Amino acid sequence: MSYREITRKLKKESNPLKAAILARFFKTKKGEYGYGDRFIGVTVPTQRTIARAHLDIDLRTIERLLESATHEYRLTALLILTYQFKKGDHAKKQQIYQYYLKKIECINNWDLVDTSAHTIVGEYLLLHPTHKKILHTLARSKNIWKRRIAIVATHAFIRAGQFDETVHLSRLLLADNHDLIHKAVGWMLREVGKRHKQTLLEFLNTYGASMPRTSLRYALEHCTPKEKAYFMHQTRRT
Fold it and tell me: Which of 38, 52, 117, 187 is surrounded by the most beta carbons within 10 Å?
């Protein structure tokens, strides 16, 4: 009944015009990164409201949502998982973390990753640092979404004042050829810089000249005009 109730609510809030816009925005044409993804046009705030109303659903129901071709069903499932994770005890957090890795193939667009990875993967690994090698395994995957999960998960470490994992993974992903990874790496480096600028500048002094320009622009967002000009000039000379 919960599955039917959730999908009924989502369908009730659907908007065909918005669905068409989202399909273009998330690149769902053949050959694009979101090919095959289907949208019904429900806003994220609405999905959050629906998710919060169904925090008691079990993993079987979540799995039905997560395995759907409909993007909003998968995002709502992940929102529920993140809320359950935050409220859960140690055993519940471990269960959700293991389930997330088991169903990782369903987390197949950038907003799905960005909504969930820092909480379910990042926060769990903060509690269990001996398991952090999974991030390096994911970062070396041929699957773009696994690579993005790896770097975005380090946001939890950054918030805790720990920057080594972000620096290590950013270095590992320097040669990545996908724009969505360039953006994610730059985003996480920017977050490092907001909390400890010296760590960011040390990274850029070492690797800035060889970084993808998209990553560099994102990383420099909160730097001074002089710093931006200096590092962007370095990339033009290479």
Answer: 117
